[in-house]
C-alpha cells in the first residue's frame, strides 16, 4: 500500500486541438516530499502542474488529493498554491497587500493578517519591504514576494512552475538553496517544474523525468543519474556517451569492438542494448594499456576538468579528465565495470548520436528556445 | 526640418512638433485669452466674465447632460469591453472593426440619421403607428426627439467608442497569470473582478471618461439637431456669439465662455489624473 500519499494522478490524459499533451500519466506524490517534474519544453510538465492546480481539467483520469477525487474542483477551493513563471504579482498592490491577498479572502482579522505578513516576509528575508511598490523590486525580490504570498495561505502543496527561470545564475543558485531550506522548515510538499537538470538533481527528493507527454523515469536524483532507464533519460540528465552494444552474457557486454565486464544482468544472450558511459567515468591511460584507443579531436578547458572529444572507431566520445591531453594525440581509455550502465533498447535508441555536433553554444541556443516554448504552452 | 537656433544663450532644438504646437495650440489659446479680457475697442476688461453668471443655468445643464451621457457610456462600455477582451482573437478583431466603423462616417450624417429614426414621422413612430393601425387603435406617436433624452442619446451614440476602446485596451493588457494567481489564492469569479480586473482597468476607465465627457460638454451640433434648439448648451451659446445666430456677434463674450469651459475641463482632467496615479498602475490603457 502507498503510505502518506497526498496527490495521486491516475491515467491522466490531456489533448489540445487534437494533439495529445499528456498520455495516460499515473503518478503519486508523498506528503512532504520535494518532487520535480523535469523535461524539455512541450513534455507536459507544466500541463501536469496546471491539472493539479485546477487551471486545467484532464480529458481522462482522476486527480486524487488527500484521498478525495478533486476533478472539477475550481482552483480557489484547492489546498494547493502556485508560484508562477513570471511571479504574477499584483502591480496595483504593494508587497504587504500582495502577501495579504489570500488572507483577506479568508476573512482573517487584521491583526492576524499583519502578523502573518510579517512572518512571511522574514521567512523570505524581506523584512521591512512591506510598503514597497512591486515594480521597484528586483527579479529576485519579486520571486520572494511570490513565495511569501503563496505560503501565507498555508497550502498543503506548493506548485512551482519554473520559478527561477528568469533569474541570473548566481541568484538562481542562492534561491535553490533557500527554497530547499524553506521546504524543509515548513515540511510541506513542493512540486517543482523545471527543464534545468542540475536544478532538479540538487534540490529534489524525487525526480519525474518526462518527455512527449509520458513519464520516462521516476526516481531519486542518484537513481536517475546512475541508472537511467533509457537513452532519453541518460542524455537529458548530464552528459552521456550512448553507444550500441551486445550483451554477450550476464555481466559481459561488447561495444566499440571490445568486450567489457559490467555489473548488469537479466538480458537475453546477445541482446542488442544501449550502453551508457558518463564522461567522468572514463580513465585516460597510455595507448598500449587502453581497452579502447582513439584520437583526440578537441580539448576544451572547463575549469575543474578538461573536456576531451575522442574519436573511437568513428564514434566521438566525450571524456572529462583533470589531466590535459593534446589535440591529435592517440590515447588509451579504460572503463571500469561500475562505470558501465546497460539499458534496454527504446524508441530513443540511436537518436542522440555522438558528440560530433556538440558545442556549448548549441546547448544554450536550444535553452533559449525552450524558454520561449515554455511560455507559449503556459498561455494555453 | 529641425534645426538648432539660439534663443538668449540657450540652444533650443525647434522640432516640427514644437512649431505645430505653437501654430495650432498656443496661438489659438492666446487669442482666446486676449478676446476674453478685452472689449470691442481692444482695451482690457473683465466684464465678459460676468456673462458666465448670466448663463449659469446653461452651464449647469451642459454639465448635467455630459455627466449623464458619460455615466451611461461607462455602464454600457465596460461590459462590452470586458466580453470583447475575453473573446477569441478573431472576434476581438471583428468587434473592434464594428465599433470603429461608425467613426468613419461624418459626425453630422450620423447625428442626422438619428433624426430620421426618432422624429414624429420617423422610423420608430411609423412602425408603431403601423402596428397600432393593425390593432385598430389610433396612435399619435411618442415624442422621441427635441428633448434632453435625445441629446443624451446623441452623445452616448457618438462617443461610446471612445469609452469602449481605452477600457478594452486596459483589459487586454492584464496578464492572464494575474487572474490565475487570484483564483489560486482563493478568489471566486466575483472577487477576481473586484480585486484585480477592476483596479487594473482604472487607467482605461479614466481615459474613457475624459474622452467622452469633454466632447459631450462642449458639443453644439447634437443639441441643435436632436434637441431642436430648445435646450441650449454652452457649446451652442459660444457658437452663437461667434457666428451671430441670435443677432449679436461678440467674440469677446464667446471667448470668455470658451475660456471658462476650458478651465473647468482642465480642472476635471487634473483630478482624473490624480485618481489614475493613485491607482498605481503601470502602463495603463490610454490610446
Write up this protein.
The complex is a heterodimer of chains A (about 375) and B (about 290). Chain A is of the alpha+beta class and about 375 residues long. Chain A has two domains: about 5-225, 3-Layer(aba) Sandwich (Rossmann fold); about 240-370, OB fold (Dihydrolipoamide Acetyltransferase, E2P), CATH 2.40.50.140. Chain A has nine helices and 20 strands. In chain A, the strands form four sheets. Chain A has a six-stranded mixed beta sheet, sandwiched between helices. A five-stranded antiparallel beta sheet of chain A has the order 13-12-11-14-20. In chain A, strands 15-19-16-17-18 form a five-stranded antiparallel beta sheet, with no helix packed on it. In chain A, strand 4 and strand 5 form a beta hairpin. Chain A is elongated and about 80 Å long. Chain B folds into two domains: about 1-35, no CATH class; about 50-280, MetI-like fold, CATH 1.10.3720. Chain B has helices at about 15-35, 50-55, 55-85, 90-100, 105-120, 125-135, 150-170, 175-185, 190-200, 200-220, 220-225, 235-245, 250-280; strands at about 5, 10-15. Mean pLDDT of chain B is about 90; it is low at about 280-285. Classes of the chains: A alpha+beta (about 375), B mainly alpha (about 290). At the A-B interface, helix 2 of A face helix 8 and helix 9 of B.
